[in-house]
Design goal:
- This protein is mainly α.
- It has one domain.
- Helix content is 82%, strand content 0%.
- It is built from 6 helices and no strands.
- The longest helix is centred in the N-terminal third of the chain and has 55 residues.
- It is elongated.
- The protein starts with a helix and ends with a helix.
């Protein structure tokens, strides 16, 4: 066997090794993507549970929120409490929107439109949104998305 034949065999072995490495890395990337999506979905589920827990754990605090939400003239502390309560839920929806856009969760994991439509059927959330009380806390793209969705829902409700 001459050196050219040995070199050719070495090149073939090297090419096969590179190909196997690429296949292995592709599999690792798929596994990592699944793990990231699973972790993101779990984080969203945990956040949903926390929002619900916060509204259920202390009936006095929940009643206080509803009492404050009816007021037109709130103290600074009441306004902070009111906006903070609303933002727990709204920020979670914004997070879902961003994760859907990034592809870090799948569309079949959560129906964001349905969640938002249900949320804004609540007069408290709808009024706060339409009055612009939450605008300074959310990204413009999400605000536009919600505005379009609410606008479509309001026009359907009028028909």
């Amino acid at each position: 066997m001459n050196w050219e034949a040995i070199g050719a065999i070495g090149e073939i072995v090297g090419a096969v090794a590179v190909l196997l490495t690429i296949v292995y890395l592709a599999d690792q990337i798929k596994q990592n993507t699944r793990a990231v999506k699973a972790a993101t979905q779990q984080a969203i589920s945990d956040a949903t549970t926390e929002v619900w827990r916060n509204s259920c754990i202390d009936i006095d605090r929940t009643e206080k929120f509803y009492e404050i939400s009816e007021k037109d003239d709130r103290t600074k502390a009441e306004q902070s409490f009111y906006v903070g309560w609303l933002m727990q839920t709204i920020r979670q929806q914004e997070n879902i929107y961003l994760n859907l856009k990034l592809g870090s969760i799948d569309d079949d994991f959560v129906d964001l439109n349905s969640r938002l439509v249900t949320l804004f059927k609540s007069p408290i959330y709808r009024k706060a949104w339409l009055n612009g009380e939450l605008n300074n806390f959310l990204i413009t793209e999400f605000r536009d998305y919600v505005d379009d969705l609410i606008g479509a829902e309001l026009s359907l409700m009028k028909k």
